[in-house]
Description:
Layout: H1 3-15, E1 18-24, E2 30-36, E3 38-40, E4 43-47, H2 53-60, E5 63-69, E6 79-89, H3 93-106, E7 123-135, E8 143-147, H4 150-154, H5 158-165
Helix pairs in contact: 3-5
Amino acid sequence: MKSQFKRQIVDLLNQHRIMTIATNRPDGWPQATVVSYANDGLIIYCRISRDSQKCANIARDPRVSLAIAKDYPQPLQIRGLSIAAHVVEVTDRGERDHAAEVLLQRYPEYKVLPRLDPAAVPTFRLTPEFVSVLDYSKGFGHSDLVKVTDNDLAEFVEARRHHWAGFHVA
């Protein structure tokens, strides 16, 4: 992907804290819900209750769609992201602790809450595959569709694997 798109995507991910995630229900209907998230570059982390319909949907079909934007006062100011991603539960303790730290940086107000039990509220890693970069300043409804390649993700995933291995929050 062109570096300008990568920068724009990461900047938009960094500017927001809430996304809409659409999962596939067993009856074929999509289910869209609002979820808090934090990102480490292009990698997105969120926590979802294991008892939720979302979690059951993800276990059955790890393909999700995300929408991230805010409410703009003028239509031609709209900027946001529509993302097709794959979801995996984070089971590596180092990565789970890393994700917890990334989430606490985005949500410092959560520091007063007790640590979540990963058995009840697992952490998920969402890896984008396609991203529509919405920018209505270029025309109403304008978007640029970009494919996220392994090279685009390498700086965010492979560079951190060694970090995850030794990363544990006290």
